[in-house]
Amino acid sequence: MMKSKMKWIAALKIWVVIYPSITFFLYVFGEKLSVLPLYQRTFILTISLVPWIIFAGVPLVDAILRRVNR
C-alpha cells in the first residue's frame, strides 16, 4: 500500500511541473511552432521540457516540499 501512495505522490509532483511548463512553453513558442508538423512540434516540446522536468522542475518541487514539511 505504501508503494502505491509513493507512486501517486511522484505522479502528482511530476504533473505539478509538467502542466505549467507545457502551458508556458506553448504560450511563448506555440504560434511559431504552429507552422511545423505535429511530430516536429512534439519532438521540440519533449526535447526541451524533459530535461527541465527531470533536472530542475521536480528537484525544485522536492526542495519546496522539504521546506514546507519542516
Q: In terms of topology, how is this protein built?
A:
Blueprint: H1 2-33, H2 38-68
Q: Mean pLDDT, as a whole number? A: 94
Strand content: under 5%
Specify Rg, calculated over alpha carbons: 15 Å
The major pleated sheet works out as: none
SS elements, strand count: 0
Number of domains: 1
Instruction: State the share of residues found in helices, binned by percent.
Output: over 70%
Would you give an account of this structure?
Helix content is 90%, strand content 0%. With 70 residues, the protein is mainly α. The chain has one domain.
Short description:
The chain is mainly alpha-helical.
Tag the structure with descriptive keywords.
mainly alpha; 2 helices; 0% strand; elongated
